[in-house]
Design a protein that fits this description.
This protein is of the alpha/beta class and 671 residues long. Among the domains are: 96 residues, Nucleic acid-binding proteins (OB fold (Dihydrolipoamide Acetyltransferase, E2P)); 176 residues, 3-Layer(aba) Sandwich (Rossmann fold); 155 residues, P-loop containing nucleotide triphosphate hydrolases (Rossmann fold). The protein is built from 23 helices and 21 strands. The chain has a 7-stranded parallel sheet with strand order 11-12-10-13-14-9-15, with helices on both faces. A 6-stranded parallel sheet has the order 16-21-20-17-19-18, sandwiched between helices. Strand 4 and strand 5 form a beta hairpin. Helix 4 runs antiparallel to helix 6. The longest helix is centred in the N-terminal third of the chain and has 32 residues. The radius of gyration is 30 Å and the shape is globular.
């Protein structure tokens, strides 16, 4: 009898080549196969009489093969294999394309269950390439699991592999979920759930098993994150004794919102608590996250420590330095900017100021984590647009000091429950207010036939004293039928020859980018054609119109970020997305943006459409991969799993009373 720890190669028929293909699906052992849950099910329990079949539907029929399958070659590279099947209500043709061997296994006079799509009407009806299975007298259909595949691996192979895994697990796979949770949430025991999720007898049974596996996966994740957070809170950290920020609030050029004051109070309490702070501040575009970053930097400097603020682009780092320097200067604090584009002599001088402690607040890009940068006494770290950095990069900056307080900021707002899961080892502050006076950006989705009218609208905004962003997905003409930034800049110079059109993209050298942005910010350029390099942080209050080319090519949250570049001044601002004529899916997506300016709502829709992998990226959040839970649709179970994990860990932080659960949590996070 095989064991769960056995390699897939221990099974008959699986050699080195098949084993390598299975590894692409993450299947190395029978344990892995046991935890490869079906992505869907083919319900073959509902049998349809042949006479009742409708064109375009997928159906299962129980029928007898009435003729020997006949092979026909209709052209080079195309073979058809045809036969006729019948039941008590009538007959229908069956056609297979380029699959003669599969069809040749059908035996005239034998009864089978056929499942496939119906094509044609009347006597021309056909079942196209149906799956089939031989039936014994009196047998009925069943539910067939559908597993994720890779090239060279078939459903039949995975059915055999998971069957072997189920047999190996029989009676040997202890349930690690506490019994009171099974009873409280009506979850089936693990052995039952494993059998039901792989071989359900009813769709209700499959749904109950999946619910158990979703709760289990989220509960394990939350237990692991809660343990990480608990270990952090056990560690001694820097204690900031001075937490008076009255002078900081007075130095700001605008009154803070209530949400900003609340978030700053939360991080100040963390810094005074004697444990390393790890806090996420998330808020919508324009909610003022930079104020919380500045407050932490001031707290660090007031307590004799240095603070580092890392931004993903040189444009954003320079902008932070420009906007925050007057505030820091008013408080008597020194601030320096460090970027990779600086000359050797300038970098050397900045490095020396940082190492000596002369520089109290350091704002920069990835240059902050280079080997040549040594801090005198780093006490606080801020990572802006944290999703733009990998886990290792954030860690590298933190390790420049001895347990500094860490604040990460995200302008991709997500529901609080989801944030507490994805950033479960962090405390979360939410900025849910916009500064007073900001008008919602009026948003429209249009097709190509509106292009001339949009050009006229651009001209009108410029005549009224505004400026325009035009965003394109590519820098140069490529294979995709998209307008490149360079191509579009040239077109605009021809359409609006009297207007000053500038170009900005990621391949330009930093000094070139800085010059372009400086001129645009100073009002010396009317139209800035750019790639998504302007997505984050760029602040030009006079720009009040954004036009996005090929809007269907961007994620919803990215489009919302782009829209956030306008609406920062006193003028009414507008955002126009081209792409409405790219099909029903594009229209539906862009309609969401036209209907709301709420980033939380947009992010929720984006997550539902793209899934967590594309939305967050494994590299950014560093979480274990979720195999069955859906972060968009399983929010209710997610909330329950988090609450139960917190409750259990509060009573038993080391899980000493639940060794099987502890082992399973450790395995999840080691993976």
């Amino acid at each position: 009898m095989p064991a769960l720890q056995d390699s897939t190669r221990s099974l008959p028929g699986i050699g080195p080549k098949k084993a390598a293909l299975l590894e692409k699906l993450g299947l190395r052992t029978l344990q892995d196969a046991l935890e490869l849950y079906p992505r869907d099910y083919d319900d073959r329990t509902h049998i349809t009489p042949i006479a009742a079949l409708q064109e375009g539907e997928r159906a299962c029929v129980r029928a007898i093969v009435g003729s020997t399958p006949e092979l026909r070659r209709i052209r080079r590279g195309m073979e058809l294999t045809k036969c006729t099947i019948f039941d008590e209500s009538g007959s229908i043709g069956v056609t297979y394309f380029n699959n003669r061997y599969y069809a040749a296994l059908l035996r005239e006079g034998q009864e089978y269950l056929f499942c496939g799509a119906v094509q044609g009407r009347g006597r021309g009806r056909q079942l196209i390439s149906p799956d089939y299975e031989k039936l014994s007298p009196g047998a009925c259909g069943h539910i067939v699991p559908i597993y994720p595949l890779t090239a060279g691996i078939t459903q039949r192979m995975l059915l055999q592999l998971t069957e072997a895994a189920l047999n190996a697990a029989e009676g040997k796979y202890p349930d690690f979920l506490p019994g009171h949770l099974l009873a409280q949430y009506g979850l089936p025991p693990l052995q039952n759930a494993l059998r039901s999720i792989h071989r359900p007898e009813t769709m209700e049974e499959a749904a109950a098993a999946r619910r158990r596996m979703v709760f289990e996966e989220l509960f394990l994740l939350c237990c692991g994150l809660q343990r990480m957070k608990g270990k952090r809170l056990e560690q001694p950290g820097l204690r900031f004794e001075k937490i008076d920020l009255d002078s900081f609030w007075q130095a700001l050029p605008f009154p803070p919102t209530g949400a900003q004051q609340r978030a700053v109070s939360e991080l100040a309490a963390d810094c005074a608590g004697g444990h390393p702070m790890r806090r996420l501040v998330q808020g919508d575009v324009g909610s003022g996250k930079t104020v919380t970053a500045a407050a932490l930097c001031v707290l660090a400097a007031q307590n004799g420590f240095q603070a580092a603020l890392m931004a993903p682009t040189e444009i954003l780092a320079a902008q932070h330095a420009q906007s925050l320097a007057p505030v820091f200067r008013a408080l008597g604090l020194s601030c320096v900017l460090l970027t990779g584009a600086m000359g050797t002599a300038e970098k050397r001088a900045k490095h020396a100021a940082i190492a000596s402690g002369e520089a109290q607040i350091i704002i920069g890009t990835h240059a902050l984590i280079q080997k040549g940068v040594a801090f005198s006494r780093l006490g606080a770290v801020v990572v802006d647009e944290q999703h733009r950095f990998g886990v290792k990069q954030r860690t590298a900056l933190r390790q420049k000091g001895e347990m500094p307080h860490v604040l990460v900021m995200s302008a991709t707002p997500i529901p609080r429950t989801l944030a507490l899961i994805l950033y479960g080892d962090l405390d979360v502050s939410v900025l849910d207010e916009l500064p007073p006076g900001r008008q919602p950006v009026q948003t429209f989705a249009v097709g190509e036939r509106m292009r001339q009218r949009i050009y006229q609208f651009m001209e009108k905004q410029i005549l009224d004293g505004g400026q325009v962003y035009v965003v394109c997905p590519l820098v140069e003409e490529g294979e995709l039928p998209l307008k490149s930034a360079e191509q579009h800049a040239q077109a605009l110079r021809q359409v609006l020859p009297h207007r000053r059109v500038a170009l900005l993209h990621g391949r330009m050298k930093p000094p070139e980018k800085d010059a372009v942005m400086t001129e645009f910010a100073a009002g010396q350029t009317d139209i800035l054609v750019a790639t998504t390099v302007i997505e984050v942080g760029v602040n030009v209050p006079n720009a009040n119109l954004m036009v996005v080319e090929d809007g269907d090519r961007f994620g919803l949250s990215q489009l919302h970020q782009l829209r956030g570049r306008v609406g920062r001044g006193k003028k009414q601002s507008y955002c126009i997305f081209f792409g409405k004529d790219k099909g029903e899916k594009a229209r539906a997506r862009l309609k969401i943006l036209c209907g709301t300016n709420d980033g939380f709502e947009i992010a929720r829709a984006d997550l539902a459409q793209r899934g967590p992998g594309d939305f967050f990226g494994q590299r950014q959040h560093g979480l274990p991969v979720l195999h069955v839970a859906n972060l968009a649709s399983d929010l209710a179970l997610m909330q329950s799993a988090r609450e139960e994990a917190e409750r259990l860990l509060a009573q038993d932080p080391s899980l000493s009373r639940y060794p099987a659960l502890r082992e399973r949590v450790n395995r999840m996070f080691s993976e």
